[in-house]
Write the structure tokens for this entry.
Amino acid sequence: MDKQTLSFQAEVKQILHLVTHSLYSNKEIFLRELVSNASDACDKLRFEALDNAALFEDQPNLEIRVWFDAEKKTITIRDNGIGMTAEEAVAHLGTIAKSGTREFMAKLEGDQKKDANLIGQFGVGFYSGFIVAERMTVETRRAGAEASQGVRWSSEGTGDFEVETIERAQRGTDVILHLREGEEEFLSAWKLKSIISKYSDHISLPVLMPKQKWDEEKKEQVTTDEWEPVNKAAALWTRPKSEVTDAQYQEFYKQISYDQEAPLAYTHNRVEGRTEYTQLLYVPAKAPFDLWNRDKRGGVKLYVKRVFIMDDAEALMPVYLRFVKGVIDSADLPLNVSRELLQESRDVKAIREGSTKKVLGMLEDVAENQKDKYAEFWKQFGAVLKEGIGEDFQNQERLAKLLRFASTTADEGVSLPDYVARMKEGQESIYYITADSLAAAKNSPQLEIFRKKGIEVLLLTDRVDEWMLSHLYEFDGKPLQSVAKGGVDLGKLQDEEEKKAAEATAEALKPLIDRLKGSLQDRAKDVRVTTRLVDSPACIVVDEGDMSGHLARMLKQAGQNAPASKPILEINAEHALIKRLDSAEGSERFDDLAHIVFDQAVLAEGGHLEDPAAYVRRVNSLLTA
Ligand SMILES: Nc1ncnc2c1ncn2[C@@H]1O[C@H](COP(=O)(O)OP(=O)(O)OP(=O)(O)O)[C@@H](O)[C@H]1O
């Protein structure tokens, strides 16, 4: 191919702009990114060579070399990995933004564009070279290709790049950084070594640099022809726990997650027995921008006997733990395992179960010993963890203990064990209400009797709550009961006298109730007297088996059909408005008043009126009467 000049794809240009303008405060990461790419390229070669050993050519030892040239002001990162064809170089280094780039760029707005943390979370990879380089040249040849199929790619990291075919005997890739004015500090063996050992110690391949020697005559360090490894070259997770420092665990996390913040917790174990594997798993402190995407594959990398197999091996973690990052290295799986095989493997099932238990254990530990941290975790990931209640029956009880809610006692952080410990004598159920917002839940008329009697009610406002509750019937032997469904049965909490009085009132109001049923026959399934209200005239409840108003609204918003079931109107016999209604019986106003009472109950519950204009007309006619 003759020399061609091509344009970067729009998203790539944006990334390049961000890289050179925003990541300046942490320049040295360029070396981490490029060494990591070199290591990935070697992993890929090792993997492809499983089926085709000829790809190793005459160089079976995979390695990365880093050196600099003080005169030319260049730094070179060389790997003898998989290399790239011309098409691959064009696609990977310029015209096809990595999956997620577009979505990511769309998410960044205004000032956020300067936020290095967000950019870090995404990982800028190859382009980070332009933080320190005014030009990057890549010389590469795909393993197995002819020497005449070498490629030179070169760019100043602005609008476009050049590619041409070159002769290249050496397999793999050289990335050559032509440093910008002012970046000379990186032309130092000591500096480069210290960056490599800081960021790349765990890389499983040797990273070599030319050996330095003290020259007595020149009185300075000079570079020799000998190469020496500058990293430990043992994958972090293969090292015994006692030899890995907290700082190294944290650094490894940054590399695999692109999260600049320290993880919330991590766990590192070697599991022996029928299935043997090593796991190093992290729970992040902050949710990634695409947490809600359930199709997003998990963040766990799979290795088999230290050979990298695949990123994002989703079969290794349940979907509701998709925020977990880390590495699992199995001793049992075949090296040529595919995603499909993973789904069916019994070993994978054992690994997934073991890893799930470990993650839950980590979370329990944080919840128990670092309550503030757990509260923050809950804000970030709580709603995702709730998915587990319906998806992981085996661990449902453990998960239920990890849940946190708002309640009528506290705005956040209430656990089910907390609730149970505070239950009133004679209270048999765990009461809850679902609503669109905390304010709507708190002010719901259905809570009035519970407030009056000092009974705590959980206030659930997450979108997944309704779904979760359809899988969680009880906790600690106590049923979970909605205060907006069915009749209120406070069981032993209600004394006999109260019950008798309620029955007597119901009897006395029978004619009124019958009349109301007539007026509202198209809107209410039933009308009855209730003891659940204190200050409000009426409220809407649904039958035990029916869908709650909150869930029906959510379904409608999502464009789905909610089964049409009419609610039940409950009235407060003690309320002035109901008394007024009673005395209006027989008058022509009765119908208007009945509808107003019903509409107000719908509004108080957070519902929408089907005919708001009719409501306004009725209220106005009363106001002007
Ligand atoms: N040294 C290399 N050898 C072979 N291919 C490379 C090398 N460096 C980069 N590439 C190719 O270029 C692509 C883009 O690299 P880049 O670092 O931008 O992203 P990435 O490595 O895919 O993602 P990330 O950095 O987020 O892990 C890589 O996926 C790989 O295909």
